[in-house]
């Protein structure tokens, strides 16, 4: 606005000086006429200078804070950091580097991977194809691990990069597929076996009543004892199959706010009702109140299954002990069950959660499978702790929610 007013004033000065200079000269005021001409010339020169300055400013290119190449680099880095999938790249010297925030968080590095997991290195061996897809398990925070689908692309050496890697977390998808397959399998087994066991139970009971009236007392006793044995075995098989059927029909958890300390205390009371005097239970409660959303009934069942398994294993020790502990660690609820039994053989550690698999004389392979399915239904994980981190205990199972 100031520039416009100044321009108008200069134009007005030029017009006024030109209009007054001639009559003033004709009237003999020569000095005044010369002064008016000088004013007109000054205003015109000032006006021309102002216009040239405005033109120069309009044509001048302001220097950019960030060069075009730098802006593109910053934009690409922001896009990579926004991607939730961990991205890596391999350089010509064979080193692996994190390309975005998700990868840096997963491998706890700001750039180069100092000790890449062997499973990851195996995917990018030189003899692998350019579009190789693989599924591997990588360690994560808290001592657990997760399954990732790895996609590898060749970089061709551009920018010193020979391979690109993208890791997609498929743990939840695999767990859901396993749970669905397990439910379908158990439903088929329970249906087929129950169709055979139901008439056996009914007929054996009827036969036991009829043969108990046989005139020959000795024969009647023998037949009655044989049929009673058949019935006991049939009842045992019936309970066995019903347990698997309950596993297959496990409903979705009804999540409600629950005090973690109260949950552990109630579970300990239920455990003592069966094992008091035979197995000592150590209860380690969280130092402060922690509320967690879960299905209290289902979680109590899962914890009792873990405690009962631990107690049975601890009976092999002269002073059997078991520990139930709960805490808030690394942003997650952790509930652990430890025992001082004989431990688990290295060959058996990978199979303890498989359904139908039991390493106890009278085990049915239901307890740990049911506990794991309950925990997974809550969006958590049930893992077998590493032997090196157990301290005075021989076996440890950890629930992370």
TrEMBL record:
The record's listing under CDD domains reads: HATPase
Spell out the molecular function terms from Gene Ontology.
ATP binding; phosphorelay sensor kinase activity
What reaction gets catalysed by this protein? ATP + protein L-histidine = ADP + protein N-phospho-L-histidine
Q: Which SMART domains match?
A: HATPase_c (SM00387), HisKA (SM00388)
The lineage's top-level taxon is Bacteria
InterPro entries referenced in this protein's UniProt entry, alphabetically: HATPase_C_sf, HATPase_dom, His_kinase_dom, HisK_dim/P_dom, HisK_dim/P_sf, Sig_transdc_His_kin-like_C, TrpB-like_PALP_sf
E.C. numbers: 2.7.13.3
Q: Which Pfam families match?
A: HATPase_c
Keywords of this entry? ATP-binding, Kinase, Nucleotide-binding, Phosphoprotein, Transferase, Two-component regulatory system
**The UniProt record lists the keyword Transcription regulation:** no
Provide the protein name.
Answer: histidine kinase
Biological source species: Neoasaia chiangmaiensis
